[in-house]
Amino acid sequence: MKNSEFYIGWMPKAPASFAKQVKSVLFILFPLAIIVGLVLASFQKKFSTANFEFGKSTEIKGIYINSPVPMLKVVNGKDIWGNASFISIPLVGYGKHGAETAIMQLEKEKNTSFNNKELTMKGTLLYSDGKTLLQVSKEENPVISIGKDADVLSLPKQTDLGIQKIKGEIIDPKCYFGVMKPGEGKVHRDCAIRCILGGIPPVLKVMNEKGEMNYYLVVGANGERMNEAVRDFVAEPVEIEARAVQQDDWVILYVKDKNIKRVSSISLYRSEDQIASCVGGCIK
Amino acid sequence: MSAGYTAVGWNRQKKLYDWFIFGFCVLYLISFILVTACINPDYTFETVLIRSTSTLAVLLLHVILSIGPLARMNKKFLPLLYNRRHLGVTMFCIAAVHGVFSIIQFHALGHVNPFVSLFTSNTNFFSLSGFPFQSLGFFALIIFFLMAVTSHDFWLHNLSPKVWKTLHMFVYLAYCLIVMHVMLGVIQYETHPVFVLLIAAGSLWLISLHLIVGRREIKKDNEKFGLANEGFVAVCDAGEFEEGRAKIFCIDEERIAVYKHENKLYAIHNVCKHQGGPLGEGKIIDGCITCPWHGYQYLPNNGQSPPPFTEKVSTYDVRVEDMKVWVNPKPFAEGTERPGAVIN
Fold first, then answer.
1. Which of A37, A117, A169, A233 has the fewest CB atoms inside 10 Å of its own CB, making it the most exposed?
2. pLDDT tens, B249-265?
3. Interchain pair A19, B79: CB under 8 A
């Protein structure tokens, strides 16, 4: 550097040697920084294929089941013997809220219980990995019509699968099955806790030995909601000991509060544990 | 320097600097979003916005924290230092987009206020794997906000340089919070090692850079001056000075800049009143000692900024005897006239 060259920021131009140095640095730094960005973008975990039909309202007719979580049992084609097959669509509320409060208010307004009745409802669908949920908002008058009581054959069929120990991650199904990507893991933990505390039923996500995901609704030992009880375990690897009951296409875990414990995340990937993790035929 | 108040003293260099930052940020964000969209057709815009702004803000923070030590090592980085605050404000704006969108995404539309939710959803403060990492990012954003709003010289003058500098040193606390925010958050979600490697490389780079520069400064400050006579300390030979330039001596833990100007030596306190820049690394321009950081100027004979400016620094006595330079480390009051020592 020549003695005469001295940089002053308030002068209109930098001395030639300073300008040259800065240009050289930027010539390297600029593409390097862009490359870092491209590398980070390239190595992100894959986004899930979940869907949230934001802004689109869909009408669904089914049997409203109140317990253990609000859901619609909907005819979904026929099975190989020609009998009607059903899917159960749990209901969730707007934002980070469960559907229970809205349904209770609507029942009060209509002066009737919806339980086990045929209902036509409208809301926003969210779905992924074989599971479908419906977001209903009281402000949008989601109940279009209330039909007759369902016949006994159409009511939920339950099969007791006994006491099981299952390892997995507790998620909030609304975000996981459509609203957010990612809707799981550490980055989503706060949101999942907020959703579950807001009344969205917790779901245990379990991976079997083939890497397939299975989902189990989590409720208390007597079917009561245990959203508050799971808050400290959300988005962490846990083991749940519960009575597993298959209810149509969902498996419901009836858990006593203290039968949830943290486990190491590595244990979720041990094949011997995964076999134990998979109950109810790992229903998809 | 400007006598009148102007919000930003725009000049060609500033405009170039800002256009470059703007162009880079736009290009980065577009590249990130496009690559994400191509590789992940199922992406959601809010997630990719949160991720692109977060990575850009962290990248800019590393650049910002590198400029200081690089400019200490090589003066030719000074053009990057001069407008560093523009880079800082840009980084805050980008980090704010990340923060606001994250709070909306993860905490809005619940049954409690989003800010209450931020601190009450996850209360697992005693677990590394479960730690509520979002609160760390929130506190870092508050620090960046305070730095951004006080980045103008208006606040520098009103808060006093000492308070202002102390506040802006909190950037290092904010950096630590950001590293923990990343390590306890996204690093626990993403499985590819590139994420942890990049953040570790960034931290290692900054720590190494600061340690190298700090070691150099300490070495300079620990230089021993043997002879002392009537309060004067022999520092070097008079022949070692260049016209219009200075040498810095640390005596009794105080840095003193000794300038040669028109065959005389003048000593002033080395710390600029503006942002604490090293006056001894400046140059005499138009008869004034000019700070290398932001161009603040002082007269060598009395340490006062030329009128109408009012900044003053301490002056010291210098003697030259048999071509040996002697400095008395006892400071005179700021702005005190000293005659300077003639070099024979």
1. A117
2. 999 889 999 999 999 99
3. yes
